[in-house]
Design goal:
13 helices; Tetracycline Repressor, domain 2; elongated; mainly alpha
Length: about 375
């Protein structure tokens, strides 16, 4: 395979030479095409990408040298061509993956919609069953259906509407507004987050929906805005904290044989848990920026205070993140250890590469400055000669 690649480069050089001068752009394209063709055929355990890039660069440079045209510009083009060839191969693979992911997202969205419709239909069926009874039995069934629907409000797309209606009733009653709103928003957040694995994206979506719905209701009513804003933030924070603790409990008690989370999910969950405290502050600020003057001021003050002082949410999230770390080690000590070793090696390599690049960047910068100074001197010299 490498032999074929080298022959492809040499033959392309010959054709380019016959047509006239071999430009740096031609060198880059020739090497890139040859490397891309070869890298695309590499199989698991076969020739490495390092070997392909090395042989392509060596062949191109040697070919340029033999023809007496091995300038810095052309050699640079050969190196860039080798890298671009590898990059283009991986880029095509990434593009295919992105397309597959998009197709899966579309499919998942459709399945989520179907699930929502199925649950709604099932709920209606259970509600209809109450018609066969009277009195207390009928009431029990209808209450159970309502409670179940409330539990799956997020799935049914009813979270925001449910919070708004509940908060409106609290405002209308005028009694224990802040405390009651906190309880409503806590329950709504907790139930919504319980419908799926814990994730930062879900926390962002649910929190924004719940706090916004509560604040918008108070602003529409024109009263109790501060109380509702404070209660909504408190309740949502408590709901997230409860979800964090549930996640920790799930991971602590799950047996090794019953892996409810794959390793990749665990790693992502750990990152999300570590970020959730700061994320919640960002969400509060986001709602504040879209709210009226009163709510905006209250929410901004809450966000500022949350940024300055430790919170129960952050503490619980840190504990849960530590549990995830331990779980990762239990599920794959060898893999985890190897990953840690590779990370250290990568950091060391990156540091060395950064040092080399910084030296070259400095040389280039100095060369540019030196060139500007020489250019300025030449201009001054010419001006003096004219005078």
């Amino acid at each position: 395979m490498l032999k074929e690649m080298k022959e492809q480069i040499i033959e392309a050089f010959e054709r380019a030479k016959e047509s006239g001068e071999v430009t740096a752009a031609q060198v880059r394209d020739i090497v890139q095409n040859a490397v891309s063709d070869t890298a695309g055929k590499v199989k698991e355990g076969g020739i490495t990408l390092r070997e392909i890039a090395r042989e392509a660069s060596t062949t191109a440079t040697d070919g340029l040298k033999k023809k007496g045209i091995a300038t810095r510009e052309r050699i640079t083009a050969a190196v860039e061509g080798a890298i671009n060839g590898i990059k283009s191969t991986e880029q095509r693979a990434m593009d295919r993956t992105r397309q597959e992911i998009q197709q899966l997202k579309t499919r998942l969205s459709g399945e989520e919609q179907k699930l929502s419709e199925d649950v709604r239909e099932a709920l209606e069926g259970t509600r209809q069953s109450s018609e066969a009874f009277t009195g207390e039995m009928k009431e029990h069934i209808e209450t159970a259906v309502t409670d179940t629907k409330l539990k799956y409000a997020e799935l049914l797309g009813l979270t925001g509407g449910t919070v708004k209606q509940a908060v409106k009733q609290v405002i209308d009653s005028g009694k224990d507004v802040e405390e009651t709103v906190a309880k409503i928003t806590r329950d709504a957040t907790e139930k919504a987050l319980a419908e799926a694995h814990f994730s930062a994206d879900r926390v962002r979506k649910v929190s924004h929906t719940v706090i916004s719905a509560a604040v918008e209701t108070a602003e529409e009513a024109g009263t109790n805005i501060s109380e509702v804003a404070r209660g909504a933030v408190q309740g949502t924070r408590e709901g997230i904290t409860s979800a964090v603790e549930s996640t920790k409990e799930t991971l602590s008690t799950a047996s090794e044989k019953t892996k409810s989370f794959v390793t990749e999910d665990l790693a992502r969950t750990k990152e999300d848990l570590e970020a959730v405290g700061d994320l919640f502050v960002e969400i509060i600020r986001g709602v504040a920026s879209r709210s009226g003057e009163v709510a905006g001021k209250v929410l901004t003050e809450i966000a500022d205070q949350a940024r300055k002082t430790p919170s129960t949410l952050k503490e619980r999230a840190a504990e849960a993140a530590e549990t995830v770390s331990n779980r990762l080690k239990e599920l794959g000590k060898d893999t985890f250890g190897k990953a840690a070793h590779l990370t250290e090696e990568t950091v060391h390599t990156a540091a060395e590469e950064a040092r080399q690049l910084s030296k070259r960047a400095l040389d280039i910068a100095r060369g540019a400055v030196s060139g500007m100074i020489r250019g300025a001197k030449d201009v001054l010299k010419k001006d003096k000669e004219k005078k």
